Amino acid sequence: MFLAFPLNDKPDWRRPPVFTLLIILINCIVFFGPQRADETREEKAAGFYQKSDLPAFEMPRYLEALQQRSGAENRKIAHQVERMLAAEAYVHILPLMENDAAFMAELRRRRDADPAAEIWRAQRRKYDALRGERFTGNWMFTPAEQRWETLFTSIFLHGSVGHLIGNMIFLFAFGYTVELTLGAFRFVSFYLLAGIGGGLLQLATSWGSPIGCLGASGAISGLMAMYACLYGRRSIRFFYQLFFYFDHVRAPAWILVPAWLANELIQFVVFKDSGIGYMAHAGGLLTGTALILLYKRTHAGATVPDSGAAAIADSFPADLARAGKLLEQLKLDDARQAYAGLCRRRPHDLALLTTYAGLAKLVPASEDFHHSAALIFAFNAVTEEEVGFVRDTWARYLKDALPRPRLDEAQLLRLGMLFVRHGLLADAMSIETMMLRLAPHAAGLASLRLALVGALLKQNRRSEAAALAQALQAQMPEGVEARLAVELLTNG
Questions:
Q1: Closest CA to 370 of 346, 336, 335
Q2: According to the CATH classification, is domain 311-491 in 1.25.40.10?
Q3: Mutual angle of helices 278-298 and 217-231, in 10-degree steps
Q4: pLDDT confidence bin for 313, thresholds 50/70/90
């Protein structure tokens, strides 16, 4: 639904984030070591379980135990198990049952004397031997068990390679700046406290649930909140995605915290049965925010320190003056190169972009002409004057670029969406035509077509909107964009 990722900092490897990298290393060692050994044993044991008489003996009893318990969480799990049992989806019931410590303890205490029970006990012993001691199950946090040490250990466990990689990317992206600001000891302490805070909120909202929780997401959510609170009112640049729309924008850093928190709460309500710990994420965000607000009260004026990038910025005024002098002396090639370097450092400075583009258009066969156009197409145009500048650059680039324009799908989609937002539909439709030629089955083309359908309907151009909707259905008949386009036509 919603994603926001800051683009403000670049690591300075002269001051490496040692403890951030160490935490990443520990997570990887745990996952690819004992957790991966768990996975191998469990695959072999699950194969035996499927072929044995164990499902017929154990799983109806597990369903019965769930149905006898009180609480909404147990009723929900019982309903899920009942449906899976009817479909003989034993492989999905097995982890739920195995992580239900109370049921498993009761099951192992059974002393039925009938022959079926003897067969069950023999097969259960063989299954347990194949499965061995479960590292992940022993150390992940399960609300029903309330083993408090697992609030800490579960922070270093992950459910899959994708889960691990995604978390480690965000851990590095935010941990670098937070560690640099807080120092190693306070950084590690706050990271762990945020993870524990996330686990506690997950416990409070899933009290008594036998479903285990694992992952660094709560702690990393805490880092995200710390990052935003440390920057505070300072404007940062961040990428965001809302459904199929994405862009980047500059805004005060603190607004990311309520945006992230609202996203987790909405997803918790809408996708409550997804198995994702949205409330652990929310708990981490709240804990990280509280820790940094307390830190800033006791460390007046605390903020993100200047990094290596800031040192480069210190030379900017002198470099700008040098570029201006080269321009005054009509040393146009040297001036163009100087302004190219300045624009790389400040790609959102419209005055610099205008000067650079003016110099680059004198040599349309040069790399600078393509580079200046790309920077302008990526510019976050807001005012009519800025949008007009981007549109004029677009028209000139199409006409003059040699040997031909260099435009990829992402650039075209961004320009198309910009023109749609500002009512420049003729330009947006020309981009739609170019995208159709460049990547006829791309998701970006579908997004642009959907936006155009809505904009055309607002201008009462229904026949054109219908033609685009029809093209969208032909492109992606099962896609969400095609369905939304039909709904717009129906309700428009």
A1: 336
A2: yes
A3: 40
A4: very low
Residue whose pair of structure tokens reads 């981009």 in the numeric block: 431
State the Cα–Cα distance between residues 153 and 216, nearest whole angstrom: 10
8 A C-beta contact, residue 273 and residue 76: yes
134 contacts 244 by C-beta, under 8 angstroms:
no
For β-strands 235-242 and 2-6, DSSP reports them as antiparallel
When mean pLDDT is compared over 21-30, 83-92, 243-252, 372-381, the highest value belongs to 21-30
* C-alpha span between 411 and 477 (Å, rounded): 25
Nearest to 244 by CA among 420, 380, 491: 420
Residue 349 CB neighbours (<10 A): 17
Question: Cα–Cα distances in Å, from 409 out to 146, 215, 367, 433, 434?
Answer: 50, 35, 20, 12, 9
For the chain, the helix, strand and coil percentages under 3-state DSSP, each to the nearest 5: 70, 5, 25
Helix (H, G, I), strand (E, B) or coil at 406: coil
Token pair recorded at residue 88:
């003989």
Residues of the chain with CATH 1.25.40.10: 311-491
pLDDT in tens, 80-118: 888 888 888 888 888 888 878 788 888 888 776 667 778
